[in-house]
Specification:
The complex is a heterodimer of chains A (405) and B (107). With 405 residues, chain A is of the alpha+beta class. Helix content of chain A is 50%, strand content 10%. The chains are: A alpha+beta (405), B alpha+beta (107). The complex binds protoporphyrin IX containing FE and FE2/S2 (inorganic) cluster.
Chain lengths: 405, 107
């Protein structure tokens, strides 16, 4: 064993560069060290697979309860920023409607109806059609609205709430306008919840909020926990399915041979979904904080260090994934880190798999024959804490109405 | 207490464990290949699937509803008798010594 060293100080890493194209930056970082101190981000960035995995599996040393978390300020203290044992009861209350059984008996049908509705909208957009803004975003918002049970809000409300609260969570620049928009959304969500609690006590159904109101044994989570966790789920359950629809469609449209194989064999849709989030993890980085002095990947970290676990980079670690930069549905199956791991492993993973891999993507390609990227308009991707397509203009040759499989 | 992991062509691995340690957790801490345990033991990911050897089956606690649901989502085929989630079986609770076979795939 070599002695632990101090983290390299990587002043060359800048936020605008990472926003544009983080992958060459991460590649160079991985070659130099597993953990870097990055002044522009004001935290250590953990960029290799093994070290990201170690951190997420060891919640005692790598706490999710970050000091000075902007997420706590914008959304309240949710389970995502709590460690076990405090995290466990909130997580347990959240899980039942998100499990495979509930998806099969209740949500699958809802995802199908919602998908048809927003495919119609994409069709109606015609020459101006954008796969993200006419399909993926409203669909992801409508699916989330259904599961959570916000019968008193629209999918547009959910999109606005989600984006403004996420912006506040990332408001390191302390912009007062961003705080104000986030605060307004947070209050709107509180008001909507206040209306729904008595409603679901009288009209129980399969939704998540109904489950929170009618918990077995008659107990309820404290209202602050209900509010904070619903806000976190609005912030964390909308953009990610949107972005994986966009990334997967883009990757397949850019690789017609692979698209051809998936269309021949629909059993490959889940494989394409998994490879899309391996290739571009929708949540690129999430925070942790060390609870003691520790060595990670040969780098010494004092207690109280603020870390970014960069799964966007870990999922491209060449020590684990061959030709990691390539989108390749035929690659050897290996666990990736896009859903996180350990106590905070994504609670919505089965929802995402079903709504995107079993419904949205197959229906999209069934309905629009000869779907293509429109080369006359601009296509673009962006982001590093969250990454996805910003613009994905599409055209098609023919529409096959009602071609449900 | 002891867990023995059958690794097919790669022989077996024995791990000594303390009471309360699950088959999944012991595999992760000791780098036993073939057990992933993505969700950290919350019966939510089905990547800690194991086949329990026959002689240990009778002593195990029953399969909960959550475990039952996950066992229908495993990547390697479920064995109606032998399949269990490694995260739901802990030393000192479900067994003192146990032998399990690790499936060919978890993802
Ligand atoms: C492809 C889509 C998705 C991806 C890639 C994704 C990714 C993630 C990741 C990486 C985490 C852990 C973050 C951390 O540890 O700090 C997480 C947590 C979480 N996700 Fe997802 N997510 C997706 C979809 C969803 C959906 C659709 C929902 C809701 C229906 C959801 C609900 C949650 C919740 C509630 C947590 C917090 C779990 C906890 O703290 O125990 N996610 N997700
Ligand atoms: S570790 Fe996830 S189900 Fe056992």
């Amino acid at each position: 064993m070599t002695a632990a060293r101090e983290a390299p100080v990587s002043e060359w890493v800048t936020i605008p560069d990472m926003y544009r194209d983080p992958f060459p930056i991460f590649q160079r970082m991985r070659a130099e060290a597993a953990v870097h101190w990055v002044p522009s981000v004001n935290r250590y960035m953990v960029v290799t697979y093994d070290e990201c995995h170690t951190a997420e599996m060891d919640g005692e040393t790598f706490s999710a309860d970050e000091t000075g978390s902007l997420m706590k300020r914008s959304m309240g203290h949710s389970m995502l920023r709590k460690d076990d044992p405090e995290h466990a009861p909130e997580r347990a209350a959240w899980q039942p409607p998100l499990r495979p059984g509930a998806i099969k008996t209740v949500w699958r049908e809802v995802f199908e109806a919602n998908t048809e509705r927003y495919l119609d909208r994409l069709a109606d957009a015609g020459d101006a059609a954008d796969l993200i803004w006419d399909f993926a975003a409203p669909l992801a918002a409508e699916n989330l609205r259904s599961i959570l049970g916000f019968v008193n809000a629209t999918q547009e409300d959910l999109q606005r709430w989600s984006q403004t609260m996420i912006d506040a969570t990332g408001n390191y620049a302390d912009d007062p306008v961003v705080w104000e928009k986030g605060r307004r959304s947070s209050e709107e969500v509180d008001r909507a919840i206040d209306e729904l609690l008595p409603y679901y006590a009288a009209h129980p159904d399969a939704s998540l909020i109904s489950g929170l109101v009618n918990m077995p044994g008659g107990e309820r989570l404290p209202i602050e926990a209900i509010r904070a966790n619903l806000k976190m789920t609005i912030g964390g359950g909308l953009n990610e399915p949107r972005d994986v629809i966009g990334t997967a469609a883009w990757a397949l449209l850019e690789n017609p041979d692979q698209l051809g194989r998936v269309l021949q064999d629909p059993a490959l849709w889940p494989v394409a979904f998994d490879e899309a989030i391996r290739w571009i993890a929708p949540i690129g980085m999430y925070p942790r904080e060390t609870t003691r002095d520790v060595e990670l990947g040969g780098v010494r970290l004092p207690a109280g260090s603020r870390l970014g676990i960069v799964v966007l980079s870990a999922n491209r670690d060449e020590r684990v994934f061959e030709y990691a930069e390539r989108f390749d549905i035929a690659r050897e199956k290996k666990p990736h880190l896009a859903f996180g791991g350990g106590a905070h492993y994504c609670a919505g993973a089965w929802v995402a798999k079903s709504s995107v891999a079993q419904v949205a993507l197959p229906r999209l390609f069934e309905r629009f024959e000869g779907l293509e990227i429109d080369g006359d308009r601009e296509t673009s991707a962006g982001g590093w804490v969250f990454r996805g397509m910003l613009k994905l203009p599409v055209t098609w040759q023919r529409e096959r109405k009602g071609a449900a499989a | 207490m002891k867990i023995t992991y059958g690794l097919g062509d790669r022989g077996t691995r024995e791990v000594d464990v303390e009471a309360g340690t699950s088959i999944m957790r012991a595999a992760i801490t000791n780098s036993v290949p073939g057990i992933v345990g993505e969700c950290g033991g919350q019966a939510m990911c089905a990547t800690c699937h194991v086949y329990v050897r026959d002689e240990h089956l009778d002593a195990l606690p029953p399969i909960s509803d959550d475990e039952e649901e996950m066992l229908d989502c495993t990547v390697a085929p479920r064995d109606e008798r032998r399949s269990r989630l490694g995260c739901q079986l802990a030393a000192g609770v479900a067994f003192d010594e146990i032998v399990v076979d690790v499936p060919s795939a978890q993802v």
